[in-house]
């Protein structure tokens, strides 16, 4: 998959763009899920790891953790944040590991970067091959049938380099296997404002379709998108946390 130019150019600002994310809560929740559903092992791989904030929390919790991403500038920053971890430039839809791991994560809806159902299927197969028996695959996803194109999430950050506003929202046409993640970034310094617009092609899939892809390889648990409590998915929910145990 080609590297997105926006993130290459703005890799220094990636952590600002994700400043409203509670990486600690997400990491600790998955560590608990590994204890409850997984094999208890502590070898961890984070897909689409970016600058490595989740990997840092897994390392601090005693995991042997590493990550992969397609963006080298991101991984350069991850290596600074987590010098004891191993990072690799790999496509999550066609990756391999030297030794099987116990836990694979894919946070921040990044599984949707597979972009097509064919590549999503290949990603799931790569995960299955990379896991130990009883290993766990955890990720979050959005149901294409529940997307509201009107909704955008925004947050602002003030640093010495300027005032930033980050906005993002899902968009789905209502048909087909492609949806988009639409992004807007504004940087204001003094009286000058720079604006970037971007649209990332993402795979569109319903939860039922996603379960059908996973179930030949995994025992699948679909939970509320809640990193504080473990609850079954409620009717009508459009976001979910998938917990998948290798068969």
TrEMBL record:
Gene Ontology MF term list: methyltransferase activity
A Pfam family: Methyltransf_25
All copies of domain Methyltransferase, residue ranges: 45-135
GO biological process, one term: methylation
Listed InterPro entries: Methyltransf_25, SAM-dependent_MTases_sf
Annotated keywords: Methyltransferase, Transferase
Statement: the UniProt record of this protein carries the keyword Methyltransferase: yes
Matching PANTHER family: TRANS-ACONITATE 2-METHYLTRANSFERASE, TRANS-ACONITATE 2-METHYLTRANSFERASE-RELATED
Name of the featured protein: Methyltransferase domain-containing protein
Provenance organism: Phytopseudomonas argentinensis
